[in-house]
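Hi everyone, sorry if this is the wrong subforum. Our group has a chain we'd like a structural model of before ordering constructs, and none of us has done structure prediction before. Sequence below.
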Amino acid sequence: MIKFFSKIIILFPPSFFFSHSQLINKLKKKLPMKGQHVLFHNTPSEQPQNFLIRLLSYNIFLRPPPIKNNASDHKDARCLEFLKHINNYDIICLQEIFGFLNKRKHKIVKTCFKNGFHFYSSSVSPSFFSTFLVDGGLLTLSKFPIVATEFKAYKYCILTDSLSHKGVLYTKILIKDQVLHLFNTHTQASYMGKESDKVFPLAFVLFFVFKKSSLKTRIDQFQEMRTFIEAMLKKHNFEENHLVLIAGDFNIDSRHCIHPIEFVNDLKIGELLLKEMYNEYEYLLFDVLAGSKDDKDKIIDILKVKFQIFSSFI
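Answer:
Right subforum, don't worry. Here is the predicted structure as tokens:
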């Protein structure tokens, strides 16, 4: 997660609104899950009264059937455990909470609503004629009013990620007299581990092919994300006292993210080629997301600042 304000930026279809009484009637039947964005209104008295805002970003790993690592990935047990802790937070950003053939998403939204999360937005489902099989798996829930929301799909993904409509989910949240611009995302994963070349020669080749392709895809997606952030802040009247947070699963290994420059020498990413080593963590966060060379925003990795260590993945 990253952080930037104005010059210092903090990273850490139309919308439908319902009155509180209409909302309760809707809930008695079934929460709408098919719309791109569904925003619930609650009354001001129901909002958290403290000014310590507790935000959770979590890849909940609820992949659609029949994808699984064992009998069930323990999906039901993990959902129940997750729901025990939702009251510890005011805003929740989830990744891999797919709606395709998956009732767990509806259960989570419904339970969160009953616990005060009366506002939520989710990534748009792909059209029937698209090449994507499932939605982007993004869901943002809030106890504070969401007043605007948009979803931007990445232009492409590769390997098995190409089946998911991955992108960035933007929500503008009002917290008393403050404004939060929140971005929730899940970028391209890498599917070949560092030890692959030790198994057999073919794995050595696949490691470089898949690793390089995944790396290039993430670069493209971070560039798209930066453009989308700028567009949303401009469209939704960003001011210097507003807070901007970027949360999600970036799929960057921040502890083992350095590659020989030869590994990426054909990616044509400009000044990076002048360096002897390529550091994906530093490049994507502090170059791409920071903006243009002449007008960079200050990026703060919240986890690193708070705990004085790199998180293993962000």
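For your construct planning: The chain has a mean pLDDT of 77. The chain has one domain: 2-305.
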